[in-house]
Structures are given as structure tokens and as C-alpha cells.
Design goal:
The complex is a heterodimer of chains A (273) and B (319). By secondary structure, chain A is mainly α. Chain A is built from ten helices and no strands. The longest helix of chain A is centred in the middle third of the chain and has 35 residues. Chain B is 32% helix and 25% strand. Chain B is built from ten helices and 13 strands. In chain B, the strands form three sheets. Chain B has a six-stranded mixed sheet with strand order 5-6-7-3-8-9, sandwiched between helices. Chain B has a four-stranded antiparallel sheet with strand order 11-12-10-13, with helices on one face. In chain B, strands 2-1-4 form a three-stranded antiparallel sheet, with helices on one face. Chain B is elongated, with a radius of gyration of 25 Å. Classes of the chains: A mainly alpha (273), B alpha/beta (319). Chains A and B meet through helix 1, helix 3 and helix 4 of A and helix 2, helix 4 and helix 5 of B.
Chain lengths: 273, 319
Amino acid sequence: MSTATVPAPPNAPARPNAPSIPVRARDLLGCEWTKFRSVRSTYWTLAVAVLTPIGFSILVASAFAAAPPGGTPPDPLLPGLLSLEYAVIAVAVLGVLSFSSEFGTGLIRTTFAAAPRRRAVLAAKAAVTGTVTLIAGEVVAFSSFFADQAILAGHHLSVSLSDPGVPGAVLAAGVLLSVCALIGVAIGAIVRHTAGGIAAAIGVIVLPAIAALLRPPWSDRIGRFTLLDAARQVTALHPQPDLFAPAGSLLVLLAWPAAALAAAALLITRRDV
Amino acid sequence: MIELDRLSKRFGSVTALDDLSFTVRPGHVTGFLGPNGAGKTTTMKIILGLDAPSAGTALVNGCRYDRLVRPLHQVGSLLDATALHGGRTARLHLASIARSNGIGRRRVAEVLGLTGMEAVADRRVNGYSLGMKQRLGLAAAMLGDPPVLMLDEPVNGLDTEGIGWIRQFFKALAAEGRTVLVSSHLMSEMALTADHLIVIGRGKLLADMPTAQLIAANARHDVLLRSPRAAELAGLLTARGATVTPQPDGALVVTGLDAAAIGDLAAGHGIAVHALVPRQASLEDAYLDLTGESVDYHGTPATAQGPVTEGTPPMSTAR
């Protein structure tokens, strides 16, 4: 490392005029995007989130295809969704890390010193993580769909993308990853600690599923508000009659990250860092 | 310009800052001194809007920090050089910070050059030494070419060459009319770097004055004297207006008369003198005097009391 000569910056330090809000939003999005793409954990986590579920859905579809005929035929879209549920934790971790890695290293102080409007930082992180995981989720949803239907085609179980209800259900399946990543971002901002944040995210996403153990009709009455039941309802070709209709379930699905981000926005300005 | 007005910060029952007011002016390197735990970092975090004060205000260029738009153009700061994501390269670390304030890639390259980091800029910061991280932190602080710079212990981890370099760096920045606030717990370092000192202890302001003045005001001059007829000599010295403090081991500490005058006086009365040692409190002693009572955690009982040494053992603690 060499020693630099003493600098001679201009005498009047730059003081640009205050930029407009869209310009500042672009600043922060650029900042968070640079951070997101410049660490390896991003790529590992995304690889797990994309490849695992595609592979898993192929296994499930093969199992469906191999099942002996008779009984109620399984929902042809179920393999795609079941497998996405395995990617949920990976993207939740990605979301948690967006904040917890900065709190863990102390980098968050540099971030907030550069951008004192902390809710804007939260929004930028949510936008970057949410967008990337939405794209990843749709890639998974459509890849799984085509792979699964190719396997099921020979067994009269397959559906086509042109069948009614199918495009919406496949698109909705792709949203699940983004929803869980955003919950992760919010929990990362609230819990601030990686291990604790991941545990909390898993708790929020998966734990409500114990509602299924309740005595009917309570299992459905409470279960329909849970994230994963709502996701199954939105993405099923044949929704269950006891739960909310797909439109209502979509609202439930989106309400979870909305509530988590609202809580994070409330807390993020109140605490010392 | 940084202005603190009656700043207080409490963490539960602990008072970290207690009614702290001072102003840091442009054109100087201002040293921010205090023992560990005095509240230096807390003060800086409040200035940067990271911690909320319990009372009082902190203004930068007349503005609360959280109201600044693109604040890196106003204040460059370095709180903790190790606060980095280890897997990111220096260049991308700087690029991400730069983009948050609308600063371009060219400026990133400039600050890397400014701090002598070009050669390692594309390596992950995991492998950096503390000194390299300090330089990277300084590069980040310079991104917005700000009129105010605030750095927490920037000398930590630098080698001798690096310390000399950073000293020149700060002086050049101050000479350009910038406000430079540098914290340290080492008085000796600040004496060489800063021309103005703000000293705090336990969250209270202890001193706020030019370095030279602080040294003059706190440095003590006295003479250690040993004589077989100490009591007699003490009377003579007191009569001449000197202040005499007898020591437990029989020695006398005299202030108000220099060694020559004391020697002449003793000779004039035929009193033998076995030791006559002029002592000058060092800068470090002045600092210890100032902060001695405000240090939270003492080590051994032998701490920070009075002027020490010049070949003589410290004053006995056996009482």
C-alpha cells in the first residue's frame, strides 16, 4: 500500500441543490442494488431458492404420475407450490440479511449517516429484495409448471397454460417468494440480529400452520388467515371451499408483508443504532 | 461548524452525556479527547443523527443532521473502520455509499487515490489490515468532499508512517477551511495533530481551548528537594513566598521558586541539599490531572495523581 500525497480538493466543497424525491429514491435504490449484488451470499441464497424448488417439484410431479389411478386426482398445480414452500426459508434469510448483516457489522451506521431518512432505506431494501425475489419466484413458478406438466402429461393429469385459472395461479405462486423475502426484510429491521431474525421469520411464516391441528371448523376459520394456507388457496386450480376465495386469500397473502413492513417502519426511526 | 447545545444522553440510569455544549469551528483540527467511556462516540453518534439525545441539540452547519439532504456533501464521518461487509470489495463498498448521495464512480476512484488504496481496491475487505480499513473509512468520509469531517479514533491501527500521513492529511483539510473533529484517548497524539482541544470526562465538558493554552494552564512546575534539615529549610522557603508540600518520605515539593533560587537560599544558610530536582508535568500528566477523577475504571490503585517522575519514584502512597 502506498502513501498518497496530501489532497488538494477544491476550496469550496460541493453543495449541490437539494435533489427531487424521485432522484433521491433512485440514489437509494442504486445504493441498495450495489450492496445486494456485491456479496456472494446473495447468489448462494438465490441459487438455493431457485434450483431446490424446481428439482423438488419434478420429484413431486413424478410421484403424482406414479401413483396408482383411483381416488380424487391431485391438483395438477400442487407440486409447483409444495416445492416453493421449501424455498421460502431461503428468501426469508435473504431478506433478514439485508438488514441484520449491516447491524451485525455496524455498517448500518454508515448507511444511516449517508441516508438519515431511515424509512426510505427500508423502502429501498424492500424494493430491491422484493423485486429480485419476485423475478426468482416467477422463474421458479413457470419452470416448475412446464416441467411438472410435461411429466404429468402422459397421465391425463396435466393442464395447459391456456386453461382457465391456470395463468393466474402460476403467477400467484411466483409471488410467494417475494412475500416471504419482504417479511424477512421487515423482521431483519426489527430484530437486527441474523440468527434471531431468521428464527423469527420462520416463526412468522411457518408457525401459524399449526392452526391446521385445531378442531374443525376452527382449523379452517383460523387457518385461512395463515400465510401458507392463503398461498395454497391462491395457487390452486381447485380452491378449497372452506377457506377464503382466491381473491380474498391474495389479500391475506399480501397483508402479512404489509403488516411486517409497517411495524418495521414504525420502529426503525425510534431506536438508536 | 458543529454546534452542541446542552446535549444530554441517558441510557437507563447511566448518564452518558451531561449537559454538554461546545462548538467546533472551521479551519482547525479539533481534538476530541477523553478516557474510554467518556462519551466521545455517543456524542458523535448524536451529531450524526444515529442516537437520539435525551435533551439538547446538535447542529451541523446550522442544521439538524436528519434534515440534511445528501448529507455526505456536508459531513464526512468515520465511526468504526471495521464496520464493513467482509465479502465486499473496497470499490463496491465505496460505490454503494456514493450512490446513496448521487456521487459518481469517478469520485470513488479519486478518494481511493487520495487514501492510497487503488492497488487493493478490488480485493475483498476481509483480508485488510486495520490500517487499510482506516484508510478505506477515510476514503468513504471524503466521498462528498464535505466541509465538515468527524472521525472517531482514526489513528488506531495505523503504523508510524500512516500516522504521519493522516496528521498531514487532517492539517491540509483544516487549512482549506474545513471543520475537522478527531477523537482520541491519547493526549500525546492529539498534541501533535490538533490545534484546539475539547476534553470530556464522564459526559461532562472539562476543557475547550487551544492546545497550547491547555498545556500551559495544566502543566505544573515544581522542585523536589531532599535535605537533612528539611524542616528548617521549609520555613525559609515559605518565608520567601514559596509553597512547600512535605512528602511522607521526608522530601519537600516546592512550587513558586526555581531550583537555582532554592539552592542559593540553602547555600546562604549553610544547609546541605542532597537532592534538588526540577520537575515538569508532561502533557500526559496535564491530561490525567484533568480527567483523573472522571475515569470510570481504574486499574491498580496507583493512578493519575499529581506530577510524576524525572528520575524520582512517584510519591509514596503509604500513608
